[in-house]
Amino acid sequence: MDQALPARDARALCSNGCIMSPYVLAFLIGVIAGLRSLTAPAAVSWAARLGWLPLGNTWLAFLGFAYTPYIFTALALGELVADKLPKTPSRKAPGPFLFRIVSGAVCGAALTGGQAGGLIAGALGGIAGTLGGYEFRARLVKAIGGKDFPIALLEDVIAVGGAVWIVS
């Protein structure tokens, strides 16, 4: 008799049937946090609340509390709007950069049941997503003649879609 894989314990079954390491998923959710710092926690919080991530007996149990997904979702929506404003600081400024690393680390840890390896993978993903996302956006904006808004929307779609794919 086949047993179902435990949620993110040792490995995760991809939608195409492959087995993906939860540490790869932790890194990827960190990349999402690097793109949009609050999209990753919103997605992880919804996954925990819906029972997709068993975090009840970990230091990350708060992510699955009743109101947490709503709070993170509201904050993430605010970030999506604020990102388009001209006075929004660069993601590479010390404060936003550090927050993206911490966000990636916490979300990465959540995908590995609170393990330190997931924390590290998520933090590294946060760094990669912050720096890579900055370069991706800057180069695409330059390529289309300086129009930032459509590229910012593309980045939003990538972040939200990627976060949903990672936690599902």
List keywords for this structure.
2% strand; two-stranded antiparallel sheet; 168 residues; disordered N terminus; mainly alpha
Q: Uncertain segments of ≥5 residues (pLDDT<50)?
A: 1-10
Helix content: 55-70%
Order of helices and strands: EEHHHHHH
- What is the beta-strand fraction? under 5%
Any idea what the radius of gyration is?
A: 16 Å
What's the number of domains?
A: 1
Mean pLDDT: 91
Number of DSSP strand runs: 2
Enumerate how many helices there are, as a single number.
6
Task: Give the CA-based shape.
Answer: globular
Structural class of the secondary structure composition?
Answer: mainly alpha
Strand order of the largest sheet: 1-2
State the end-to-end CA separation: 25 Å
- Biggest sheet architecture: 2 strands, antiparallel
Task: Give a structural overview.
By secondary structure, the protein is mostly helical. The chain has one domain (26-167). Helices cover 63% and strands 2% of the residues. The protein has a two-stranded antiparallel ribbon with strand order 1-2. A hairpin with a 5-residue loop joins strand 1 (12-13) and strand 2 (19-20). The longest helix is centred in the C-terminal third of the chain and has 28 residues, at 116-143. The model is unreliable at 1-10 (pLDDT under 50).
Describe the secondary-structure layout.
Elements: E1 12-13, E2 19-20, H1 22-35, H2 39-49, H3 68-82, H4 94-111, H5 116-143, H6 148-167
Antiparallel strand pairs: 1-2
Helix pairs in contact: 1-4, 1-5, 1-6, 2-3, 2-6, 4-5, 5-6
